[in-house]
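Chapter review: from sequence to fold.
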Amino acid sequence: MGLYVILVGVQGAGKGVQASFIREHYGIPHVSTGDLFRAMRTRQDELALKIQEIMKEGRLVSDEVTNEVVRDRLEQDDATNGVILDGFPRNEAQAKWLEDYLASRGETLNAVLLLKLDLYTAFKRAFGRVKHPDSNDVYNIFFDNEDIEWEFEDHPENAYPPRLKAKEKASGKTLDRRSDDANAGAIIKRIDTYLENTAPLIQYFSGKGQLYEIDADQSIEAVSSDIQAVIDQTLA
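The token string follows.
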């Protein structure tokens, strides 16, 4: 039997970090539907060309096509022993398809891990995030800020909202900020979309006894430890 885990959490909950932990600890790939669809832009097979045409015409990708993309990924060699699903399923129909698909392979969903984080903290984690331009080092002006200097700089004529300026103390390097993290409205929209899409799924998986809540407002190590305890319990 393989290990099949779904990661659910609002932006800033640490899904990426915890997906890396699960991948390294249990040896299964992290499957993000966002990454899958981006990869389809460079492929030339029948499925990829179908999706490219849908996107070119500005149409929404149907559940049927989305399921086909996920099936294509789950049937690759590195997914033989399971996967970490991120961004899928997005609705009850996709969840039921996943259950049926896994059952057809003699597999079952082990756990849906809900990384719980209050929305104010989630907002601060996104809005305060800054990144080193030459590495993957990420800081946050509200939390992980001991090694950085930062300030909000007003526009001289107040034509625009204040701009965040941050730099790393040790190197003096100016830190980058994602444009969507700098837009408070965009962050709130992402949170609203998460709440709208995720609430029904939480109820669905909870009713099946497959939902496990993890307190994401802890250290990375503590969250990883809680996740490991849940996964090991499902594998016992």
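Two observations follow directly from the output. The chain has a mean pLDDT of 91. Residues 129-176 form one domain.
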